[in-house]
Amino acid sequence: MTKALSVVRSLLFLAYMAITVIPWGFVVVVCSPFLNSDAVYTWCINWVKLAHHGSRWICGVKARVIGMENLPTAEQATAAVILASKHQSTWETFALPSVMPHPLAYVFKKELLYIPFFGWAMSRLDMIHIDRSRRTEAWNKVADQGRRLSKLGKWVIMFPEGTRTSRGSQGTYKAGATRLAIAVGVPVVPIAVDSARCWPRKSFWLKPGVVTISIGKPISPQGRQPDEMMREVQAWIEAEMRRLDPEAYTGTPA
Questions:
Q1: Which whole number is the average pLDDT over 169-178?
Q2: In 3D, which of 165, 186, 197, 198 has the Cα closest to residue 229?
Q3: Domains of the chain (ranges, CATH numbers)
Q4: Of 116, 119, 132, 209, which alpha carbon lies 20 to 30 A from 228's?
C-alpha cells in the first residue's frame, strides 16, 4: 500500500469516528439518567468496539491477543485485578475494552471529559478521572474509587508510564497501579502492546499491520512494596516489548 493511500484511509477512519461518536455520545448523555451503570457501559463500549473494528476495516490494523489464559476465567468473573498496560497509542484505549472478557474501569486524566460527545459520554461511566496536577488528591481518589470498584469485581486499568511513549522508548513507570493493588489486595496483570508500529504517538496516520496485545501472568501483591512490585511489572512489560518489536529496540537494553 502506498503512503498516500494509507493517509487517505486514516482520514476516512477519523471521519468515521467523528461521525459515529456524535449520535452515540448524545444518546448516552440523554439516556444515562434512566439507565444503570452496566447498561451505560455496554452502550459506550459498543461504540468503542465500533471504533476498534473500524481501524481494521478501514486502515488494515489487525489485533493479535496472546496470554488470555492469564486473566480470571468466566467462573471467576467477579475476581478483581489491576491491569497495568504499556501505552504507545490511542489504539489500545479502544482495543483493550473490546477484547477483554470483563468490564474495565479506566483511570484517566479529567481533561478527556471536555472532548465533545466522547468526553461527555465518558463522564457518565463509572470510572476514575483525576486531576494530575493535584497528586495527593488524585491518589486518594484512585485509592477510594479503586477499592470500591474492586469490591464490585471491576477490572481497573492503568497506564504506569502515565502517557503515550514513542515506539522503542520507555517512560518512567509510576507505582500507582501497584500501590492500589497492595491497598486493595488484588493482583496486577502486566500487558505489553506494540501499537506504535501501526498508530504512532501524536500521529493520525494509521499504517496497516498486526498489533499484538500480550497479557502476562498475575503478580500477587502479598508481602510486596509498591516500588519493588512495579519494578517487576516494568521488567516484564519492557522485556516483552523487546520480544514483540525487536527492530524498535535495537541496542536498547531492557
A1: 94
A2: 186
A3: 3-249 (3.40.1130.10)
A4: 132
